[in-house]
Amino acid sequence: MTYSQPRGYRLSTDTSLTSVSRALERFGWPLWQVEIRRAVAAVCVELLADDDRDTVFRKLSHGQVGDDDLVVSAANRRGLLHRAAEFLDVGHGIMHRPSALPLPPRLDLRCRAQFMDDRDDPERRYTYVLFGTEHERLEEVFLQLRGIEAYPLASGDDPVDDDDAAGAGAELAERAAVWDRVLAPYARFSPLSISAPEPQVTFDVAESLHWPDREDEFAAQGKTTVTQVVAEVARRLGDTGSSTEADADVRARLLAPIG
Asked: In which domain, by residue range, is 68 found?
């Protein structure tokens, strides 16, 4: 699964979309916040390994974002952590462009569930869903929602058991017909959808830097804090010794002002 090539599912129309939305907010978005921290940390590790920030940013964005594009962190002479946060925000903004290339999967935080009806089904038994994300953990949360069942988009690549080729072929043809009907109206407009929020890591990090004594409060609100990112970077670097010493060293390197 990817964000641009979502998987197909269906759920009973007895399940309200409001309950699905609330379940995603309760169980999915906290995991999404963890993925944000991991993404910022991944960019930080790249920056620590290469002094040429512009090269790092352009490599990660397929040439679409450079160091000069990160004007907020540059204007405030912020360090590498702030640059990494702004890079993620700018990169996700650019991905709204039709011609844009997506960020690498580990940095692509987009997640969306699209809900559709089969108008030709008089009983309206199911709501059909396309769910796309780059992160398996978010898909696992979605699969645990009440009433969700896999209903893949029909594909010639679907495996077919030779012992039941006729039955499998009939099921494949039925699914293809259903999805053709379901998707047809949405060639003209977009279906109802629930999407992960736009990352705003630049603001989260700025708050965390300005009010370090309130980091626990910010973390409880689902925001990304400096301490969280520093700990993840130290873990990825495999620093030995006490975690306190490792975090202090990494923190100093990531927060050192850039002239």
From this structure: 7-153+171-198
Measured distance CA(15)–CA(60) in Å, rounded: 40
The domain total for the chain is: 1
CA distance 16 to 10: 13
In a domain, 235, yes or no: no
- The mean pLDDT of the chain is 89
Q: Is residue 203 part of a domain?
A: no
pLDDT at 163 over 80: no
Give the orientation angle of helix 29-49 with respect to helix 201-210, to 10 degrees.
Answer: 80
- Least confident span in 9-18, 94-103, 147-156, 223-232: 147-156
Q: What is the pLDDT of residues 202-230, one digit of tens each?
A: 999 999 999 999 999 999 999 999 999 99
| Structural domain includes residue 2 | no
pLDDT digits 0-9 by tens, 78-103: 899 999 999 999 999 999 998 999 99
Instruction: Determine the Cα angle at 209 with ends 76 and 102, to 5°.
Output: 70
Of the pLDDT bands very low, low, confident and very high (cuts 50, 70, 90), residue 171 is: confident
- Please name the amino acid found at residue 49: A
Residue 220 maps to a domain: no
